[in-house]
Design a protein that fits this description.
Layout (H helix, E strand, L loop, with lengths): L3 E4 L5 H17 L3 H15 L8 E7 L2 E9 L12 E9 L8 H16 L3 E7 L3 H9 L3 E8 L6 E9 L4
Parallel strand pairs: 4-5
Antiparallel strand pairs: 1-2, 2-3, 3-4, 5-7, 6-7
C-alpha cells in the first residue's frame, strides 16, 4: 500500500509523533524522558490550536499508521488571526521504514507551500549539529544556518542550530 500525506489532526497522531521522536533521538543523540515529555507536551498544546490561522500539521500515512510528520506553528490568536509574519517548522521526522523514498522532501514542500500561501515571511527551525541529511534537505529548500551555540533545550547539551528561510510568497 502506498504512503500518502494527510493534513490535520488524526486520532493517535500525538502519541505516534512523540514515539518516533523519542525512539529516533534516544538512538541518535541519547535524549531521554525529558525530551519525550517535552515533545508530547508541546505537540499536544499545538494540536489544541491547529485551527488558528497559519498553523498546519501533515503526516505520512500508510495502512492507517503515521510514519512521518511535519508541522508549521505560526501562532495565531483565539480569533484566528495570524500573530506574526513568521512561523516555526517543528516535529519533522520520518520512520526509518520510509526514509530515502522522497517523503521527507514532499512533507517539507507541503509545509513550505502552506507558509508561502499564508504570506509567511520567514520560517525558522531549531535542530542540532550532526543531522547531516536533514541539514542538506533544509539548505536545498532555502534555509540558511543563522545561529549555532551550545544549548540544552532537548535535555542534554548539544550544538543547537537555528535555520531560517525567507519566504517565497511575494
Amino acid at each position: 500500500m502506498a504512503a500518502r500525506i494527510c493534513r490535520g489532526y488524526r486520532p493517535g497522531v500525538i502519541g505516534r509523533i512523540t514515539e518516533m521522536h523519542a525512539s529516533y533521538y534516544a538512538r541518535q543523540a541519547g535524549f531521554g524522558i525529558y525530551f519525550e515529555g517535552k515533545v508530547a507536551m508541546e505537540l499536544a498544546e499545538f494540536c489544541a490550536r491547529l485551527d488558528r490561522a497559519g498553523n498546519g500539521l501533515w503526516t505520512v500515512v500508510r495502512a492507517g499508521q503515521a510514519l512521518g510528520s511535519i508541522a508549521i506553528d505560526a501562532g495565531g490568536d483565539e480569533k484566528g488571526r495570524q500573530a506574526a509574519a513568521s512561523a516555526h517548522l517543528r516535529w519533522f521526522i520520518l520512520d526509518e521504514a520510509v526514509r530515502g523514498q522522497g517523503l521527507g522532501r514532499l512533507l517539507l514542500a507541503e509545509a513550505l507551500a502552506h507558509c508561502d500561501a499564508q504570506g509567511v515571511e520567514t520560517v525558522h527551525l531549531w535542530t542540532f549539529s550532526g543531522l547531516d541529511a536533514a541539514r542538506h534537505l533544509y539548505e536545498s529548500t532555502g534555509f540558511r544556518l543563522v545561529e549555532e551555540r551550545p544549548g540544552t533545550q532537548w535535555g542534554r547539551e548539544v550544538a543547537e542550530q537555528r535555520f531560517v528561510r525567507i519566504g517565497r510568497s511575494r
